[in-house]
């Protein structure tokens, strides 16, 4: 008997043999019918490799893009319906797909869409196009996408830096490293350093690396520096902006901060004398070879006194020549009560002797030692040396100094007479150092003493003693223009007040002498109170 197929409603029944039947589900027939009329999707190309793409066009004017066409074929016998197309990673914006030209593709027909790759920086990019359709065998087709962006990439480290708390006046420096972590040359084109504080300073290192722009090959780096020296207790911030040809981040910013801490402060108070007090004592070699030189000193002494008067100095001047140390004549000293002619007469009396010259003729240090010993209370020169006056000792000879002790002994001895050793200064008029001049030998011993105390050394061979003595008077008068501080200041924190009023002009800090120096037109008047307030340096190593 032949096999027959019988279709019943809801079931497929097949008779086998006589009355043997096998029931088959109807959906098997439907599936068979659908397969017989199914679409079959195919794509070309099956994957897209864009390769290496420069992020910018060659002229740098716009972003570089590459577009490829993908064709979708229907190789089946039924119509192919495209249900949707998307990127597997929708956040990967470097790849973009267009709409397909037709969502219905007839058998043996095709449609197209494009994939565009626009790299934004140096990186390897991957993604996939997902095509959904009614192909029963491949409802989703995946097209892998790859591409590499070629571009410079800037990296600046650290991105933020805190100097912490530094003592006022201490300094800190931090290097900021600019690197090219991309795969194409990077040009560093400029910097912006913005801060409202004067305590920061930016060093762009052009001295080391040359003028901008700098070209950094991949993996290359350079360093620039931010320096911080706080001069107050305020918090300070700064922003370093680095500009480059990185197409993705052409500007990168680093944040910098710090604060100052006060280690200590000091206030010095000075009272300007009404007149500068100065005591000047000449020790003169009275040997016979000195006659002409002594006459030059005496004849030009009026110039010396006139210069002191012009300086408004409160001066006392004397000359010592005797071994015993007592000043010759009826006048113990010459001061501003003397006329010019009286001053010349008085100094002539003091220098000239009636009788022998004594054993200390060419020993000015020993003459001065004896003279100053008699200046104490009850001595023959009592009143010659005042407590608040500067002491200027002037040695005059055409021979080397021949006192029994070394010059340093006498410098220390004479400095001990003053509370402030700087108030004692030794000057000299003698043969030029080191070779002498004319018939005069080099005035050794005296020369070294002038160097040790900051005094003047004048040539005894000079033809114009008026100029010499004028210079000596200026160097001997008490300095009313300079005020030495008691401690070392952070210079930028110095505040100067005169009679309580802050002044910022007419003075400067003298780091050599650790003093406030006033210009001639701004010298505080006599009786003024000068205040100098400043911060002290802390231990900058902590």
What is the structure about, briefly put?
The protein is an alpha+beta fold and 542 residues long.
The CATH homologous superfamily name of the largest domain equals von Willebrand factor, type A domain
Low-pLDDT regions: 1-33
Envelope shape: rod-shaped
Predict the CATH topology of the largest domain: Rossmann fold
What is the second-level CATH architecture of the largest domain? 3-Layer(aba) Sandwich
Question: How far is the N terminus from the C terminus?
Answer: 112 Å
Give the biggest sheet.
5 strands, mixed
Strand fraction equals 35-45%
As laid out across the biggest beta sheet, the strand order is 5-12-11-7-9
Would you state the CATH class of the largest domain?
Answer: Alpha Beta
**Tally of separate domains:** 5
> Based on helices, strands and strand pairing, what is the structural class?
alpha+beta
> Taking Cα atoms only, what radius of gyration do you get, to the nearest Å?
50 Å
Percentage of residues in helical conformation: 10-25%
> How many beta-strand runs?
33
Average pLDDT value? Answer: 88
So how many helices? 9
């Amino acid at each position: 008997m032949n096999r027959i197929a019988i279709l019943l409603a809801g079931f497929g029944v097949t008779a086998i043999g006589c009355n043997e039947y096998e029931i088959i589900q109807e959906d098997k027939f439907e599936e068979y019918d659908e397969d017989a009329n199914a679409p079959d999707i195919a794509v070309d190309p099956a994957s897209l490799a864009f390769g290496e793409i420069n992020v910018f066009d060659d002229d740098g004017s716009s972003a570089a893009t590459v577009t490829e066409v993908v064709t979708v074929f229907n190789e089946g016998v039924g119509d192919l319906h495209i249900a949707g197309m998307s990127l597997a990673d929708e956040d990967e914006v470097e790849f973009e797909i267009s709409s397909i030209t037709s969502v219905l593709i007839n058998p043996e027909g095709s449609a197209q869409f494009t994939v565009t790759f626009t790299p934004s920086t140096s990186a390897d990019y991957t993604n996939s196009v997902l095509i959904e359709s009614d192909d029963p065998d491949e409802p989703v087709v995946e097209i892998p996408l790859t591409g590499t962006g070629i571009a410079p990439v800037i990296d600046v480290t650290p991105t933020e830096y805190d100097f912490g708390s530094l003592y006022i006046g201490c300094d800190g420096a931090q290097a900021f490293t600019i690197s090219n972590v991309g795969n194409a040359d990077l040009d560093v084109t400029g910097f912006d350093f913005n801060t409202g504080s004067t305590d920061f300073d930016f060093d762009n290192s052009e001295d080391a690396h040359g003028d901008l722009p700098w070209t950094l090959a991949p993996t290359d780096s350079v360093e620039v520096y931010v320096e911080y020296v706080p001069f107050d207790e305020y918090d300070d911030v700064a922003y370093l902006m680095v500009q480059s040809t990185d197409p993705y981040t052409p500007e990168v910013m680093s944040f910098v901060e710090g604060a100052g801490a006060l280690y200590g402060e000091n206030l010095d108070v000075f009272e300007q004398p009404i007149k500068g007090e100065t005591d000047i004592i000449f020790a003169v070699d009275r040997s016979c070879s000195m006659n002409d030189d002594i006459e030059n000193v005496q004849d030009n002494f009026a110039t010396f006194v006139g210069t002191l008067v012009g300086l408004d100095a409160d001066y006392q001047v004397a000359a010592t020549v005797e071994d015993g140390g007592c000043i010759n004549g009826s006048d113990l000293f010459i001061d501003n009560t003397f006329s010019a002619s009286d001053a010349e007469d008085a100094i002539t009396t003091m220098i000239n002797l009636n009788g022998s010259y004594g054993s200390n003729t060419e020993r000015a240090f020993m003459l001065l030692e004896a003279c100053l010993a008699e200046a104490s209370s009850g001595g023959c020169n009592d009143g010659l040396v005042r407590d608040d006056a500067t002491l200027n000792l002037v040695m005059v000879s055409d021979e080397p100094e021949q006192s029994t002790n070394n010059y340093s002994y006498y410098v220390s001895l004479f400095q001990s007479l003053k509370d402030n050793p700087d108030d004692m200064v030794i000057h000299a008029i003698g043969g030029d150092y080191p070779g002498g001049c004319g018939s005069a030998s080099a005035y050794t011993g005296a020369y070294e003493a002038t160097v040790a105390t900051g005094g003047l050394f004048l040539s005894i061979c000079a033809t114009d003693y008026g100029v010499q003595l004028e210079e000596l008077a200026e160097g001997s008068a008490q300095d009313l223009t300079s005020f030495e501080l008691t401690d070392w200041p952070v210079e930028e924190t110095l505040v100067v007040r005169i009679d309580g009023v802050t002044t910022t002009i007419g003075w400067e800090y003298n780091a050599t002498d650790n003093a406030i120096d006033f210009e001639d037109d701004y010298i505080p008047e006599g009786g003024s109170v000068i205040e100098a307030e400043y911060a002290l340096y802390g231990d900058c190593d902590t």
